[in-house]
Write a structure and sequence with these properties.
about 230 residues, alpha+beta, three-stranded antiparallel sheet, 7 helices, CheW-lke_dom, CheW, cytoplasm
């Protein structure tokens, strides 16, 4: 029996891909020894044309790669499973849940560097994840949520980045809050799917009760397909 890939598998593939790119920002730039003569002019590597060109080449690879890269954890086809693990998170005023099998990790929020000539409205730019440039997408845009909506505020609420395993490598999506991973009874999920309430919501399988609120259970297959389309 083959073992499941580790959470860092797809991220490691992205790091390997970037080895063909001259990541001078990690050697002589702002994340290196800062000996690059262009730093005097640009102050930060993200303002340099070399950094922008490298990010553009990375996004080109998302469009060109055809390798079959499986999600971080394979789906378990087991009739005896009675619960399913979902990561619960918030965007604005709305709570959502997504299957943990497509999640690589939850990471602290990182600066997002916008790119010229954006290819889609959902593409926010790129973020530096362990020295690798990773595409950053807006779930608010992909899901058609109200971007003006607020949400709870307080010192204990920390925005996060979800690193999810898309078809051609990981992408990051910023979220306003992460509640954690919860095991949901399969009967609850089946009832939510059969309710028909998901028909009007984009990439949604159903609506679940969650801590006195309504939570959208996302269809990860449709969502990941939309992510791939946004990068091509």
């Amino acid at each position: 029996m083959s073992s499941s890939p580790s959470p860092d598998t797809d991220l490691d593939l992205t790091v390997a891909d970037t080895q063909a790119i001259d990541d001078c920002w990690n050697r002589i730039g702002i994340h290196g020894d800062k000996t690059c003569p262009l730093l005097v002019e640009h102050i930060h590597c993200r303002n340099c044309a070399v950094y922008s060109a490298a990010a553009t080449r990375l996004l080109d690879r998302y469009a060109l790669q055809q390798e079959d890269r499986h999600p971080a954890a394979a789906a378990q086809a087991d009739d005896e499973v009675v619960t399913r693990s979902l990561l619960m998170f918030r965007l604005g005023e709305e709570w959502l849940g997504i299957a943990t099998r497509c999640l690589v990790e939850v990471a602290p929020l990182q600066p997002i560097h916008s790119l010229p000539h954006q290819r889609s409205r959902a593409l926010l730019g790129v973020a530096n994840v362990r020295g690798a440039l990773v595409a950053c997408l807006s779930l608010v845009e992909l899901l058609g949520l109200d971007s003006t909506g607020g949400g709870p505020s307080g010192g204990r609420i920390m925005p996060r980045m979800l690193i999810i395993a898309a078809q051609d490598g990981p992408v990051v999506v910023p979220v306003d809050e992460v509640d954690g991973i919860h095991a949901i009874d399969e009967r609850t999920l089946k009832a939510a799917s059969a309710s028909g309430t998901q028909a009007s919501a984009r990439y949604t399988q159903g609506v679940l009760p969650f801590k006195g609120r309504s939570l959208r259970w996302l269809d990860e297959t449709q969502l990941l397909s939309a992510v791939t389309r946004s990068l091509t």
